[in-house]
Amino acid sequence: MGAPVNNLNNMLLKRILTATLLLVGLLACLFFLSNMLWALVMLLPLAIGTLEWGKLSGFSMPARLGYALSGVAFAVGAYVFSLAAWLYLAAMVFWLIIVPLWLAAGWQLKSAWLRAPLGMLVMLPLWMALVELREQGPWWVLLLMGVVWIADTAAYFAGKKFGKHKLAPSISPGKTWEGVVGAVVAVFAYGAIVLMVLSGPRFDPYAWAMPALMLGVVMLYLGIIGDLFESWVKRIANVKDSGNILPGHGGVLDRIDALTSTLPIAALILLHADILLRIL
Question: How many domains does the chain have?
Answer without folding.
Answer: 1
